[in-house]
Amino acid sequence: MIDLYYWPTPNGHKITLFLEEAGLEYRIVPVDISAGDQFKPEFLAFSPNNRMPAIIDHAPADGGQAITVFESGAILQYLADKTRQFWPKDVRAHNTVNEWLFWQVGGLGPMAGQNHHFGVYAPEKIDYAINRYVNETNRLYGVLNKRLEGRDFIAGSDYSIADMACYPWIVPHERQQQDLNQFPHLKRWFEAIAKRPATLRAYAKGEAVSNNRATVTEQGKQVLFGQKART
Prior knowledge:
It comes from Gallaecimonas pentaromativorans. By secondary structure, the protein is α+β, with helices and mostly antiparallel strands.
């Protein structure tokens, strides 16, 4: 059994995508980030960056004590290594998946996240900041679109953790002020993943956890965006 500490954000969806694809038994422990659940001492004990997702694997491959993992990219690698799925054994293909996984965690995710912040959540609309992150998101969409030309998935013909990492950050493309019609290879890939049964199950679980609550209150914004080292 795996305990998944989760809220239905793009980073949270990465992990439910994997767990549903792999058919692993897991239990969702909601971490309502707008309510400040990520600051609870019991969560910080194994997720010190006060961010979800995080997991506790009560049945690790070595049969020893439970293993905790935080950071979505690290969790995907851990689960892929545990199950020997969605991470090819061939050294070159393995490396390609890693490259694009790190491309997502170091580029697409942070840039799209800033896009969301300045375009949707910021109390003051700063044109320079909005344009900066909308344009950078657009550039990254273009990189991914070019990569997917002539390929079913990011690393080639097989679905991998690189695809699971990137897909949830393309889901809010309208919020990011991006038109998928400008990126035909990316759009084809996106639509194919959206139809996968595991994707449908993963997102349905997310809706159940949040009760379809899409808005962040002003109090929630203070929790999410007002953090400092001493918070």
